[in-house]
Specification:
The chain is α/β, with parallel strands linked by helices and 265 residues long. It has twelve helices and eight strands. Helix 7 links the parallel strand 6 and strand 7. Helix 1 packs across helix 11. The longest helix is centred in the middle third of the chain and has 16 residues. The C terminus is likely disordered. The structure holds adenosine-5'-diphosphate (ADP) and magnesium ion.
């Protein structure tokens, strides 16, 4: 059964595109036929992150009725299929967000999962993706303004007949992740389906035009995304990378320290 997820937020810059690109790549890597559509038609970034910035046909042209959806689908990492959006203002003006429904009905025939990278805010192009998805996933940062804006988006989703599956809290400081998660669930009234730490490799991967999950698969953010993807498709997540030497967890460091002390005595 095909599942359509819209990746949304209230505030801009919380990590929607990062989550969309990496979750999509991970689902594809886990063997699922996955499509990613950049519905942020005003501030399109998916193409930039995946090196598809020169794609001749984008969602702009499709939503303007100039091209068919088949002409706007490109091969991405790990077998992910990508429908990028254009970056021109004129293209944005000519694109009709209501046509997203027609594009969707074509795409869902072909895949297991469709991820829609949605715009921030509550304009019309932002509302359509909230209404058409089976589930909306809110990407939130642990700041008050981000939480308040996400709450607005949650309410808006319900008003337009959509459903929020949960939130992904992004850019979390590892020390505070449990407290942040509890706070989010309380304030937003939806479950936290994943926590992604602040990770400098996210930017490095984006600068190299590739997803972090393929570029730096052992990175903390990659592991967090793999866990979210595994849970979405109902398979057990296992962290199979060995801990780096000398940089293990508390128990390892504690026993190392203990051993050294004993050796000296
Ligand atoms: P949005 O699509 O919501 O506007 P982006 O995915 O473009 O947000 O992310 C905004 C910026 O934050 C980008 O520069 C991205 O590289 C950075 N970023 C996103 N997630 C993380 C993270 N977990 N750690 C570090 N930087 C991140
Ligand atoms: Mg974006």
């Amino acid at each position: 059964m095909v599942r359509v997820y819209t990746i949304a937020s209230g505030k801009g810059g919380t990590g929607k595109t990062t989550v969309s690109v990496n979750l999509g790549t991970m689902l594809a890597q886990l063997g699922k036929e996955t499509y990613l559509m950049d519905a942020d038609i005003g501030m399109a970034n998916v193409g930039l992150i995946l090196g598809l910035q020169d794609a001749p046909v984008t969602l702009h042209e499709v939503l303007a009725g100039k091209n068919t959806i088949d002409e706007g689908i490109y091969n991405g990492p790990a077998g992910l299929k990508v429908i990028p959006s254009g970056i021109s203002l004129q293209g944005f003006q000519q694109a009709d967000p209501d046509k997203i429904r027609d594009v969707l009905s074509e795409i869902v025939k072909r895949c297991d999962y469709l991820l829609i990278d949605a715009p921030a805010g509550i304009s019309k192009d932002g509302v359509v993706p909230l209404a058409v998805a089976d589930e909306v996933i809110l990407v939130v940062n642990p700041e008050l303004s981000s939480i308040v804006d996400a709450l607005k988006t949650k309410i808006l989703t319900e008003v337009v007949g959509g459903h929020v599956l949960g939130t992904i809290v992004n850019r979390v400081d590892a020390e505070t992740s449990e407290a942040v998660s509890a706070k989010m669930e309380k304030v937003l009234g939806v479950k936290v389906i994943g926590i992604i730490p602040e990770d400098p490799n996210v930017r490095k991967a984006a600068a190299g035009r590739s997803p972090i999950v393929t570029r730096y698969p052992d990175s903390a953010a990659s592991k967090a995304i793999k866990k979210i993807a595994s849970e979405l498709i109902g398979v057990a997540y296992k962290d199979d990378t060995p801990p780096a030497k000398g940089r293990g967890g508390f128990i390892e460091r504690f026993s190392n320290a203990l051993f050294k002390k004993k050796a000296k005595n």
